[in-house]
Amino acid sequence: MLALAFDDYETLDLHGPIEMLGHMQNVQIKLIGASPTVRSYQGPRVVTDYQLDDVVDCDLLLVPGGLGTRTLINDEALLTWLRRQASVSKKVFSVCTGSALLAKAGLLDGVSATTNKMAFSWVTSLSQQALWQPSARWVDDGRFLTSSGVSAGTDAALFYVRQRRGEAEARRIERLTEYQWNSDAANDPYAVEPMTP
Question: Mean pLDDT score of the chain, rounded to an integer?
Fold first, then answer.
């Protein structure tokens, strides 16, 4: 598994899913970023394993959100890398406004997707071709798994565990981490009003 890290990423967007995914057996998670050290919005830094000129075959590519996405949507080098990386990733999983990067890269064209409901208007303005879902904790559409804001990424990560390894494994990790999993994608307490055409 490969996770993108960038300056001003939202800490829980990245580390919540990694916590859940990392409890599966035989899983190796690596970080990739534009520099060897990346700073989260909250301040703590992480060390990356790869630089953005690398493309790595992987089962899952995790793209977090955060305030950094506001400028990265205009970073053509990053968007080009994202397109290349997505093509060699079996599944692409975005958390929060990470879907803004996928949308701007054209990866969500024709794909059912969701995003952080507090930033819904901004993210959905980036792609008229994505099939945006205003009421969904997460949306799984084949190769793309997109989740709503911040903590929803942890719920979606457990969904991915269930999808790959079964219900018992997802529940084992839920108990191990003492996390109360919202396991119903339709249970979205932060849903927004549907957009009118």
Answer: 96
